[in-house]
Amino acid sequence: MSTKLRILSVLEQQKGQSISGQTLADILGLSRTSIWKGIKTLQKEGYIIEAVTNKGYRLSAKSDVISAETIRPSLLAALQDLSMHTFKTIDSTNDEARRLSSKDPIRQGIVLSEEQTKGRGRLGKSFYSPSQTGIYMSFYLKPNLNMADAALVTTATAVAVCLAIEKLTTKKPQIKWVNDIYLGDTKICGILTEAVSDFESGKVETLIVGIGLNVKEPSAGFPTELEAIAGFLTSSAEKASFDRNLLIAEIANQFYTIYQAIEERSFLAEYKKRCFVLGKKITFKERNQQFEAVPIDIDPKGGLVVRLSDGHQRTLSYGEIIMKKPFE
C-alpha cells in the first residue's frame, strides 16, 4: 500500500477527529516530511483534510471521495478480497468491467468511477454521470447460472439497492419494472445487466451488472431533457455529510447476500413490495403496436404479468413500460 493510502486509512479510522503529524508518523513508521507530502497529495485528489494548529490533521466529515480503502472496512468478510478498481473518470464502468473480465477469466470484482463520459442504460440510452455527485459502479461476476436465472440478476440488484438505501437513510425507494429505482415521481437509479454466454452449455460465463445512482443534485443541474425525469437521493441539507463510500459498501453487501441464493428467488417478495407499477395503468409496445394494460404480478422469472384491456393476460420479459405522472 502506498504512503498516501496508509495515511488515508488512519485518517478514515478517525474521521472528523484530529491526529498530530507526529502520531501519524509514529503509527506508520514514516518521517514527518513523508506525512506532509502524503497529506498534500490526498488534498490534491479532493480529500478535505484540515490542518488544525496544535492538533494536527483532520479528515473532514464532508470529505466524499470514492476510495477502495474507505469502502473495504465496511464490506462483509466474504468480500474483503474482492478486486476493486476506482477511477476519477472513465468511459463506462460496464465497459471497463468487460475489459477486466476478459483479461482474467476467473477473478471477480467491482469497478467504480467518480464520472462516466459514456455511461449508458438499457435500450441504448445514455446515462448522465457527472463527477462527484453519483455512484457509478459495475460488478463483474463469473456465475454458474443458466440464462433464465441470470435474467433475475437485474431484479435482484434493484432490491439490493433499495435495501441499502433503506438501511442507511429514512428514504423509501420504489421500483419501476424492470430496472429503474424511483423516489416519488423521479428516477434516481438505473441498472444495466450484460452477459457473455456459452451457447453450447447455455451457461453464462461473465455477468456485468452496472448501477448508476444519482446521490446528489449536480451543481449545474440536469440536462433539459432530464429535468422532469431525473431525481437524486439526498436533500441539499443531507448531501454535505452523506457518505457515498458507505452506501457503495452496503449495496455490495446486500447484492452479495441476495446473489448467493438467487436461484431460490426469495428476494422476489421484496421486489414485489417495492414495485409501484402493480395495479396501475401502463402502456407498452410490441411489434409496433401499442397496448394498454394493468400489471398484476411478477412471475418467478422476474417477468411482469399484465392484464390487457380485453381481459387476457400476458407476461412481459423485456422492453419498456410507460406510465403517466403522477404515479399515485
From TrEMBL:
Catalytic activity: biotin + L-lysyl-[protein] + ATP = N(6)-biotinyl-L-lysyl-[protein] + AMP + diphosphate + H(+)
Stretches assigned to the BPL/LPL catalytic domain: 69-263
Origin superkingdom: Bacteria
InterPro entries (alphabetical): aa-tRNA-synth_II/BPL/LPL (IPR045864), ArsR-like_HTH (IPR011991), Bifunct_BirA (IPR030855), Biotin_CoA_COase_ligase (IPR004408), BPL_C (IPR003142), BPL_LPL_catalytic (IPR004143), HTH_11 (IPR013196), Transcriptional_repressor_C (IPR008988)
Binding region for DNA: 21-40
Residues noted as binding biotin in the record, renumbered to the chain: 92-94, 116, 120-122, 187
Entry keyword annotation includes Nucleotide-binding: yes
HAMAP family documented for this protein: Bifunct_BirA (MF_00978)
Annotated protein name in UniProt: Bifunctional ligase/repressor BirA
